[in-house]
Design goal:
It is built from 6 helices and no strands. By secondary structure, the chain is mainly α. It has one domain: Four Helix Bundle (Hemerythrin (Met), subunit A) (Up-down Bundle).
Length: 135
């Protein structure tokens, strides 16, 4: 039983890792001009914001895709699909970023929604794993 929980805890880190990468990624957008002028060549500066928003989408979708893959491979319970209840937050963030990627103030709600998706997904996955032990 302990091995199962340890393995599951490790696996739950995969989508959470994608989400935190999304948080870090989206937080680079408001600093684009200042970073570019200062010579800070982070990935958003190197790729430019218009291209970088595609990578943000990919990161967020990989978070959810990793959950589906783990369910398909039988590594976590199908009850983990409940974590997709957090998808509207991720979608909101993606939609805002798509339109506001050059606006320092306009991107703030997308940053907040990304963090909310991270938290909500983590809580829902944890609940699914906890309930999965009983069902």
């Amino acid at each position: 039983m302990s091995g199962y929980l340890d393995n599951t805890a490790f696996l739950l880190g995969i989508p959470q890792g994608f989400f935190i990468t999304g948080v870090i990624w989206i937080n680079q957008f408001p600093d684009f001009e200042a970073d570019r002028k200062a010579g800070k060549n982070n990935l958003v500066v190197r790729l430019k914001p218009a291209v970088s928003r595609y990578f943000y989408f990919a990161i967020m979708l990989m978070a959810y895709g990793s959950i589906v893959l783990m369910i398909f491979l039988g590594k976590i319970s199908s009850l983990s699909l409940i974590s997709f209840l957090s998808f509207p937050l991720a979608y909101k963030a993606m939609r805002i970023l798509w339109h506001e990627y050059l606006s320092v103030d306009g991107i703030v709600p997308a940053q907040a929604a990304t963090i909310q998706a991270l938290i909500a997904n983590g809580l829902l996955l944890s609940l699914a794993i906890g309930f999965g032990r009983y069902f």
